[in-house]
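Researcher:
Attend to token order:
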Amino acid sequence: MSEADPDSTATAGAPKFRRRAEARPDEVLDAALALFVAQGYGHTTVDQIARRAGLSKGAVYLYFPSKKALLEGLVRRAIGPVAGFAQGMPAHFRGDPRPLIARFLRLAADALTDPHTLAVPKLVVREAMAAPEIAQIYRDEVLARALPALQALIAQGVAGGFIRRVDPEMAARCIMGPLVAHLLLSEVFGVIPEGGLALDRLIETHLAILDAGLEPMLEGQP
């Protein structure tokens, strides 16, 4: 008989507690997301998440000390990289902000093509009114990072004459707004574009309008 494969514990069907420790946080987050989507954040317990992940409740708490921490982990995993990209944009950039804004929006759209990533903002939209902590977490982890960065990017573009004079704070909201409105229309009101969510079409249409709207005014224009 041949020797046992040392990696056999990670194969399909192996008990989760025998798998690599570094994989467990993602397994716990996957279990939490599935339950939050299926039955709601408020109706899901850490016990249920532990059972679905194949772990003890105590093992879950080693990685996430509370259900709120699980939600924070989901938001960071799903949207954190996009918000981090936005936050780093204005640091050393000087010039026309439109190419960077386009990269940011396309990066967000690409991320949201992953159903696991898309499920997180959908959950926020669906449950934020009933569970204000969900809205607060999303605000702290995503909006509080992306909006000021976009505002600073727009402000330097205006100061440098690369785009027309617009209100940087309101312009940053206008950049983010269509994504939020798109999810609201789909998830709350059931107004879904032909062919599904069509994020790529939304982003390219948004960028076409945005690019024209930020075009510097010619001398003599009102």
Q: What stands out?
A: The radius of gyration is 21 Å. The domain at 67-214 is CATH 1.10.357.10 (Tetracycline Repressor; domain 2). Residues 132-159 form the longest helix (28 residues). The chain has two domains: 17-65, 67-214.
